[in-house]
Every structure is written in C-alpha cells, then in structure tokens.
Specification:
Elements: E1 3-8, H1 17-25, E2 28-32, H2 35-47, E3 55-58, H3 65-70, E4 75-77, H4 85-96, E5 100-106, H5 113-129, E6 136-140, E7 145-149, E8 153-156, E9 162-166, E10 174-177, E11 194-198, E12 203-208, E13 214-218
Parallel strand pairs: 1-2, 1-5, 2-3, 3-4, 5-6
Antiparallel strand pairs: 6-7, 7-13, 8-12, 9-11, 9-13, 10-12
C-alpha cells in the first residue's frame, strides 16, 4: 500500500474524530507555517503523547522567530510568493515522498473566507500542476470533505449525503446519476449553480462532456 500524507494548514484545527484519525494514522505529517503551534497544542490529545510533525514548510510569516529557532531541524523556509504555503507543502510531498497513495489537507478552511475559497479552489489547480493520476487528494474538515475531479467519475457517498458541485468551466456539461437534482442541464457560470444537492443513492456517477475541472463538496 502507498503512503498517506497529511498536510495541516493554519485554518481551523479539526476537533472531530475522522480528521484526527487521519493525523494519527498518517505516514508523514507536514504543517504549513503557523499550523505548527496548533499541532503541538493538540498532539497529546491525538497521539496520547506530545510529538512533532515530520516537516514544517512555508514562508514563516505566521511562525514566531523563537519557534523557528527551536524547531529549525524540521523547518523548510520557502520565501517565494507565487504559491501559498498549502501549495508548497503539496509540491514538496509529491517531489520528495515516493509511493504516495493519498494527500489529506486539514486546516484549509476557517478563519478568513478568502483563504478558504483560495485553498479549496487550488485543489482543482493541483490536477493540472501535478501528476495526480495515482494520488487521491482532498481537503478534510469537521464539516466534510472536498475533492477535485477532472473527468467522468463515480464515488461512494451514502444515500442522503449533502453534495455540491463547482466548476470554473461554463462550457462543461455534467450528467449526473444518483443525485436528487439532476445536473444535466446546469450551466456552470456561477458558484451556486450545482450546490446544495443531495445523494439519492449510495453511489454517485458524474459524466463529463469533456475533460475539465470541478470540485466536489460533501457534508
């Protein structure tokens, strides 16, 4: 089996069991910048002991100088501003860790709304930036799971699960099976167009008219 990587952003640190289970069972944990402080504060509750992440990466604008000095052995400072810390963490993992099966991004949401929107939209961009054919990537929070797709796909969700679909491509048509409200005629020219849907079956199938970008949010 491949490795499960957890990346923790500086948004809201998860309180519920599933995201904390992902942290506890991860093969490698990366904190983005100031998320190190939150990780240290919560590590004993998650692991039953105090521990550190495997790596901290970012421009260090939200991590104190004292913390940077204390944990310098696990810190990689990347000052370039073309990409945010979440992207730097994803890029480092893909370039430096072999045999990755999944990347779970926690703490991508909460706090500033613009950070949340940016971090989630970047999930779609990663399907263009990186070779993710063999890697599952998702953002996980206490509220739910968000993951990108770029072609026809089928996924298990459970009947009654709340599902929203977002896409920046207004030429894309998505035929749906297993949703209460069909998306076949939806024009993706605004964010709300395929939001607030619900699964009518345990499995949902989305058929793309052409390869493109879309984001699935399950609550």
């Amino acid at each position: 089996m491949g490795k499960d990587i957890v990346i923790i952003g500086d948004g809201i640190f998860p309180k519920t069991e599933y995201p904390r289970y992902l942290i506890r069972t991860a093969d490698f944990i990366i904190c983005c910048d100031g998320a190190l402080t939150k990780f240290i504060r919560n590590s004993h509750k998650i692991f039953g002991e105090d521990r550190l992440p495997d790596l901290v990466i970012g421009d260090m604008d939200t991590l104190s100088s004292a913390m940077q000095r204390k944990y310098s052995e696990i810190i990689i400072k990347e000052t370039e501003q073309e990409h945010n810390d979440q992207t730097k963490a994803v890029r480092w993992a893909i370039n430096n860790i072999s045999d990755i099966d999944s990347i779970h991004i926690l703490g991508a949401t909460g706090g500033r709304a613009d950070h949340t929107i940016g971090n989630l939209s970047l999930l779609m961009e990663y399907t263009r930036m990186f070779d993710l054919d063999e890697i599952m990537i998702e953002a996980v929070s206490d509220e739910g799971i968000v993951f990108p797709i770029n072609d026809t796909t089928e996924f298990e969700c459970g009947e009654g699960r709340e599902i929203s679909i977002f896409s920046p491509d207004n030429t894309l048509k998505i035929k749906s099976e297993g949703l209460v409200y069909k998306t076949d005629d939806v024009v993706f020219d605004n964010w709300w167009k395929a939001s607030l849907n619900k699964a009518s079956e345990d499995k949902v199938r989305l058929t793309f008219s052409h390869k493109s970008l879309a984001l699935i949010m399950m609550n």
